[in-house]
Design a protein that fits this description.
This protein has about 70 residues and is mainly α. It contains 4 helices and no strands. The relative contact order is 0.19. It holds the Pfam family DUF3046. This is DUF3046 family protein.
């Protein structure tokens, strides 16, 4: 998954403002206790980060974006 696709999906699922908050403020156990931004900066593949977001927020991410 390209990084631009990742951010587009995150914004579609959460809205632009809340997506930014999710990425910078929410620590996800699936990412080793890092935020989305920290995981991406550490070189974690976008598809791995996306799967972590889906696992953390299964009710917020529509099936078409999974």
């Amino acid at each position: 998954m390209r990084l631009t696709d990742f951010w587009a999906r995150l914004e579609q699922a959460f809205g632009p403002g809340y997506a930014a908050s999710i990425a910078s403020d929410q620590v996800l156990p699936q990412l080793g206790g890092r935020t989305v931004e920290q995981a991406l900066a550490a070189g974690v593949e976008t598809v791995v980060v996306w799967r972590a977001v889906v696992a953390a927020y299964p009710d917020r991410v529509p099936a078409r974006l999974r």
